[in-house]
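Sorry, explain these tokens?

***
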Amino acid sequence: MGDKADSSLARMLGVLDLFTEQRLHWSAEDISQTLGVSVPTSYRYVRTLCDAGLLRRGQDAQFTLGPRIVVLDHYIRQADPLLQRSVPFMKELVTQTGFDSVISSLHGQQLLDTHRELGQAPASLSYGRGRPRPLFKGAAAKVILAGLPPATLHKLFDAHTADAAAAGLPGDWPGLRAYYGRIRKAGHYLSSGELESNLAALAAPLHHADGSIAGALSVVTTVQRLAVIDVPKLAQLVMRAASDISTRMP
């Protein structure tokens, strides 16, 4: 009985995974067909999720994500130990450089920006909190993947070989491992026009107390502004702030 209930709960929660940037509205009938459950079961799922505020019914019997998601995101921000320890240092970086400062983390196989402090001339970013970023492009992605255990990195590479190739990375595991090893040794990575053509970013890794990767701290500016700044000095500022945050991480 317990396994059956757990399976039903997993399928119901799987409704939430159907919502993507490409498809924000679902009918109970489409949910039924996609999940392989009966229409009455699908309606039971959406009714329960609506009662919990996780879905809401819109026009033409279409369902969208509900307001409870926004409330939960607020609680996540308040409880996130990385954000709690990072924000003061991010604000200091903004004061020192005038650039935006961003925290990014890897959640499963999704790379997400979780917080951004705005600089003097905020950059127009395509990727913000909650929108997954490419795994193999950009400064934050490079330093985070460089900090992963080899087995974890290998698993990501095997699951996303085409994405890695499209990003111009080595097409074989030894080459990829050596590439990220150089980034790990440098302690930072500078990207210019890599993720977005008009933007540049410099990132350093953030670590937990046990040395495992916690995320990345980045500063973001335009490619034009990058051309006139002292990059080694900027790298030292970002790496020092990342180190200060890491020493405070659990």
